[in-house]
Amino acid sequence: MAAALTFAQMASAQRMDARAALEARQDVLLSAMLDDPQDLDTALEHAAVSVRLEDYEAAVGTLERVLIQAPDSPAVLLELGVLYYRLGSFETARLYLQRAESAANAASDVVEAARQFQSAIVAAEDPLKVSGIVTTGLRYQSNATAGPGERIVTLGASTVLLSDTVLGQPDANAFVAGNVHVSYDLGNQGDLLEADLLFYGDRYFDTGRLNSAMSEVTFGPSFNMARFDVDDARFGVYGIVNGVRLNGGNYSGTLGAGARFAIQPSPRSTVNARIEYRYNWFRDTATYQTVSDRNGYDISGRLAHIVHVDDTWSLRGAFLAGFEQAKAGFETRWHAGATVGATYRFASPVERLETPWMIDLDAGYLHRAYDEPDPSVSATLTQRDNEGWVRGALGIPLRADILLSLSAEYRRVQSNYQIRDHSNTIGMVSLSKVF
Q: pTM higher than 0.85 for the full model?
């Protein structure tokens, strides 16, 4: 991780040097434009440099002056339309794009681009927006049941020989998962009404009691914090409804509420914070006879930071913590941990697949501490767990909206309760569709 941070610092310094060079070039070109307002080449370069600096207002000002000298230039009309689109001035953008499309000497690529951006404006002006991702795949786990690896364990004051059915068992499953996001623009300074539907379902090849299905809906308003002079930030509150089925029967239900805050300190950096309260009900079944001991509430929080170092590297990290109050004291627990990760993007080695491929690397740690001893294990010793994991994945975009992913993961839970001590190696292949 130290090496990754050093690389990130070097890349950040290089990026700052490159930006400083562009800003210096922008100043030189501005002076040259003032000396010779008729020099179109200088003006066009100034506009291009301003766009690279994301100084769209400066680029617009320059191209507006260029348009006085070349009023029917399709390329300039198109670029102005694109810039106004980026600035959110959709009506002005539409006028320039229509002029670029209808220009007598407009090339076919200019006409096509103008039409695409006009379609994008129509979509951007629609107050209702729907997006999402659906993933399906196959997963293999060396210890799907999260059972202990040791046959001989200590329970209370006794040494017990565990049966094969209790030990960790390998298995594979097919699964489908998704997230559908819906937002509605309230027409009030960027405030939104947002809803998310999360869903997951799997079927195991051998261990039917692990078959599960889950759905969760969150819904509520989010507010643009610019009204409080906090730019590029949103604050939202939301309700939570969740249901889980396990082994063909209802397993648990949840009602809750949460709050989230997101801000972009810079164009390449995002910070997200979230806190949630959930009340959970569990239903005893013939297979899971005592899960109602977990009835109660939990409070959890997460703080995450993502930095896009450049077009190749991005780094991320998060801290998480929570407390779960259960009906049974030996199920009451708190947890705290952290995760770190990085994504590396590189040119596709397959000529027909033009979109860059991705390598994701993640590692994490979580500590859990329980309030009371579990009487079925020990009369005096409360459970303490340390869980760690590492994960690697290769992402292969087959199209702009379809991603093939190959991943491997190793998890290790070290527990002072031998029956809870286990490890698990996971391999997965999945296909995702973005819409």
A: no
